[in-house]
Amino acid sequence: MAEETSWTDERLEKLRKLWDKGLSISQIGEELGVTRNAVAGKAHRLKLPKRQSPIAKTSAKKAPKIVESTKELPLRLALRQIKWSRSKCVWPHGDPKKVEFGFCSEPVLPGKPYCPEHCDLAYTTSRDGS
Ligand SMILES: [Zn+2]
Predict the structure, then answer these.
(1) How far is the CA of 95 from the centre of ligand 1 (A)?
(2) 121: enclosing H helix or E strand
(3) What's the CA-to-centroid distance between 59 and ligand 1, angstroms?
(4) Residue 73 and residue 32 share a domain
(5) Is residue 27 domain-shared with residue 70, that is, in the same domain?
(6) Per residue in 11-20, pLDDT tens?
(7) C-alpha of residue 20 to centroid of ligand 1, in Å
């Protein structure tokens, strides 16, 4: 008999599942009938990932840099962009202070604010419009 907690495969499996569900260490301890320390130590040894909410997991991977590029825009331009149809490229053309100013308005890539051509420009840092 081990002096402390005996970790059977079954228990390890349960620990992993509860950990994955995002239960707190003490909650997991209660479920398994072991001390908080035992859970923490085991989790550490198993190299279980730091828990995060399921939402954070998916959005962290999916989120493109659209938000960042929107932040780069001057406020007035950003406001215009909001009103602009989401299905049209919002790449600015011309001078925002002038009447001729407008947007590219080509059909956008799904989930992107720009057409393929301007996506290339937008996501490669170079913003040299001609
Ligand atoms: Zn465009």
Answers:
(1) 16
(2) helix 116-122
(3) 26
(4) no
(5) no
(6) 999 999 999 9
(7) 42
